[in-house]
Amino acid sequence: MFKMLVSVLTERMFKHLQKWFVAHFLGRPVQRARLVSKDGRCNIEFGNVEAQSRLIFFVDIWTTVLDLKWRYKMTIFITAFLGSWFFFGLLWYAVAYIHKDLPEFHPSANHTPCVEHINGLTSAFLFSLETQVTIGYGFRCVTEQCGTAIFLLIFQSILGVIINSFMCGAILAKISRPKKRAKTITFSKNAVISKRGGKLCLLIRVANLRKRLLIGSHIYGKLLKTTITPEGETIILDQININFVVDAGNENLFFISPLTIYHVIDHASPFFHMAAETLPQQDFELVVFLDGTVESTSATCQVRTSYIPEEVLWGYRFAPIVSKTKEGKYRVDFHNFSKTVEVETPHCAMCLYNEKDAQARMKRGYDNPNFILSEVSETDDTKM
């Protein structure tokens, strides 16, 4: 009995491990390469860039500092202040050393130093710190004995203001960048294809998680695919414009609640020759852009995401998301934001248009130019 129980448990464990191995290794689909990730980051790298081209980044030092990651920015921030304090501390120590103000020179009682109470490198560093950040404890101060100390004091004060302005401005600009505002704009996980207003459309849902509006919003798309020109040239990441609209157009969107944007699949659409059966075998990437101006800061921001063929569902529509409460308020249920519902949909756009053309031909007649009406005279069979 015990051996049978062990055998059953071992067999079940083996089947469980087999299913886990198949699901995590053999059954995992191959991930397609995509240029734009779902959160909008661009997956591209530049190789063989010349050294002279890299120096251009230092010419535009402001943009370079803004684009740095926070850990590098804080490293530069701390290094700039500590480095300037220590550098000027060395200069103040050199002034005291040249003027023989240090205790090891045994100055006389009536000796007037350039800077009061600088006894070594540590006190010179503290005086440099107090001067640049304008602390002014009043213990160490510059005297009128030597002009070198006065000139150094002026130079450090001016350079300190420049460093403070640049570094504090860079951090403030980094915090207030509209890139963080774009994080509160979200797109649906999938795009769907279904009928809308009697037309076959590709639909995407987008929502603004903040109550503050985006002013002058504009939405559009690019279809990226590899194409071969009639001359035989292969173009990787060839871009095709995709027009997205809502019922009121694609500009100046009233973005107070989630919107369902759609692209009409007509004869000019690159999706016209695709079908439900061939869509998963296609090789393309649909990148969707949303541009707008942040209402609170008047800064322009851009939100982007992408969809690959596996993320486009044919024959589905989005579930309702907006409802009205008994108190008269409108409620948005984000639980159904990316939820889809299967609906009856033609399996290709060409079939839908052919069906419409057939129905239209049945409702109207056509003239036949080859038809000739000939008159036939009647014979009187009753004549004798």
UniProtKB/TrEMBL annotation:
Primary residence: membrane
Domain Inward rectifier potassium channel C-terminal residues, every copy: 185-357
Pfam family, one: IRK
SUPFAM superfamilies linked: E set domains, Voltage-gated potassium channels
Any one Gene Ontology BP term: potassium ion import across plasma membrane
Keyword Magnesium on entry: no
Annotated site (Role in the control of polyamine-mediated channel gating and in the blocking by intracellular magnesium): N164
GO CC term, one of those recorded: plasma membrane
Stretches that traverse the bilayer: 76-98, 149-173
GO molecular-function term, one example from the UniProt record: ATP-activated inward rectifier potassium channel activity
Keywords annotated in UniProt: Cell membrane, Ion channel, Ion transport, Membrane, Potassium, Potassium transport, Transmembrane, Transmembrane helix, Transport, Voltage-gated channel
The keyword GTP-binding belongs to this UniProt entry's keyword annotation: no
Family membership noted in the UniProt record: Belongs to the inward rectifier-type potassium channel (TC 1.A.2.1) family.
Protein name per UniProt: ATP-sensitive inward rectifier potassium channel 1 isoform X1
